[in-house]
Design brief:
about 450 residues; alpha+beta; Membrane-bound Lytic Murein Transglycosylase D, Chain A; 5 domains; ten-stranded antiparallel β-sheet; four-stranded mixed β-sheet; 7 helices; 29 strands; about 45% strand; binds zinc ion
Length: about 450
């Protein structure tokens, strides 16, 4: 029996070793590695070597493919598992599968305008080019000495990691920036401005100005008046600050001196005024090429202006002295004008008035005729002793005598229908150096 046991024991040991070896081999053969993304299994690989540095490999692969930095926020881990009955993936297939499953972020640049995210683009140069091109639109060849060029808005370019589908198309971003936004602002009328100039400068038409300013007569604008204008604005607006040197006129002042040589109310120029000249250096701020404001930095007077001096009369004025302009001799309706009438020239105007209406001297002067004169009927002629004479015809009653001095507004006669008339009226005539001229040049009816 003993003899039999010994070899059996040996064989048993060998058998045991063999079994253990087979079991171990079987076990080892059936071990795989489950790859997990944030604890979610994505697949199983055979080899431990296949899973070391997996995240780094994927990162490098994505960066090479996208040509930019990539960030993978998820954890990629592995775990030993029995692989019996499971599908085993090659390393390459595993990498592709992970790539499809992960939610990676890519490096991008965000353009912020006044603190708000406006656009997300793949690279910084694209944004910088875009901004530079907007600025270039407002730099023309004449503008050389720009002090400063920038945007009205605060601009920032921020680096960020974003989901790849958030990257925007450069053309789309460009068109969003260029959308014109109409902004209404008030503009103060400056000396020398015309509505046409303002409209041209602000690229709007005069009808638009009219529409924006219903309370303003655009044909009669005044210095200092505030009018509404639309200013071309977009999401981004270019501000250029520039120094300008130019010449400007200096207006002259006006003073009065009293003169006892002249009658009261008479004014005469003693010294003609003359505008001066100055050299001005201003800092001008332009927004989108349109002047926004101007600050004077330096002024140098090239030529002083010359004050205009007027003489103002103080000598007491004789009541009957002509002022040199006419008042209407009578209130009434204009019934006939100066000029050709019935084949001849009507040398004055006719004012239809009832008989007995007072006719007044149109200006001071001396009566040089008072009496009947052919077709004028009862006539008064006043010589104003300044080259002008006035005629008052068809009177019923004459109140003055030849040689009498009369004052402006004095009743010289009562109206009537004497002489060549079709009804009662005042024939009023003005003669300049003996020649009849149209009275309506001096008085209105
Ligand atoms: Zn007449």
């Amino acid at each position: 029996m003993r003899k039999l046991i010994k070899p059996n024991y040996k064989a048993f040991i060998i058998a045991c070793i063999a079994i253990v070896a087979i079991l171990f081999a079987t076990y080892s053969f059936n071990i795989g590695y489950a790859i997990k993304i944030d604890n979610q299994v994505v697949g199983i690989v055979n080899n431990k070597n296949d899973v070391a540095n997996l995240k780094k490999d994927i990162n490098e692969k994505l960066e090479a493919k996208l040509d930019r930095n990539v960030d993978i926020p998820q954890n990629i881990t592995y775990e030993r598992v029995f692989k019996i009955g499971e599908e085993i993936l090659s390393k390459d297939k595993m990498i592709t599968k992970i790539e499809e499953s992960i939610d990676f972020s890519i490096e991008a640049y965000i353009l912020t305008i006044d603190g708000k995210d406006f656009a997300v683009l793949g690279n910084k140069e694209q944004i910088e080019d875009l901004l530079n091109n907007i600025k270039l639109k407002y730099i023309n060849k004449e503008v050389i000495d720009i002090n400063e060029i920038g945007f009205v808005e605060d601009i920032e370019i921020k680096k960020a990691y974003v989901n790849s589908n958030m990257i925007q198309n450069i053309e789309e971003v460009k068109s969003r920036i260029e959308i014109p936004l109409k902004q209404v602002k008030t503009y103060e009328i400056k000396k020398g401005d015309t509505i046409w100039d303002i409209a041209m400068k602000h690229e709007i038409d005069t009808r638009e100005i009219e529409r924006l300013n219903p309370n303003i007569n655009i044909d009669n604008i005044q210095i200092g008046q505030a009018i509404n204008l639309t200013f071309p604005r977009s999401v981004l607006n270019v501000r250029i600050i520039k120094e300008h040197q130019y010449e400007e006129k200096i207006p002259y002042e006006t003073t009065y001196e009293e003169s006892s040589e002249l009658y009261e109310d008479d004014v005469k120029v003693k010294i003609r005024g003359k505008e001066g000249k100055k050299e001005v250096i201003s800092e001008i701020v332009y927004i989108n090429g349109i002047e926004e404001n101007r600050q004077i930095i330096n002024e140098k007077i090239l030529e002083e202006p010359k004050t205009e001096v007027f003489l103002k009369g103080t000598k007491e004025r004789p009541e009957t002295l002509a002022y040199g302009n006419f008042m209407p001799p009578s209130r009434g309706k204009l019934t006939s004008r100066f000029g050709p009438r019935w084949g001849r020239t009507h040398t004055g105007i006719d004012i239809g008035v009832p008989i007995g209406t007072p006719n007044k001297a149109a200006d001071g002067g001396k009566v040089i005729f008072a009496g009947w004169k052919g077709s004028y009927g009862e006539l008064v002629i006043i010589d104003h002793e300044n080259g002008y004479q006035t005629y008052y015809g068809h009177n019923s009653v004459i109140k003055v005598k030849e040689g009498e001095l009369v004052y402006r507004g004095q009743v010289i006669a009562l109206s009537g229908a004497t002489g060549r008339v079709t009804g009662p009226n005042l024939h009023f005539e003005v003669r300049k150096n003996g020649q009849p001229v149209d009275p309506l040049k001096f008085i209105k009816y």
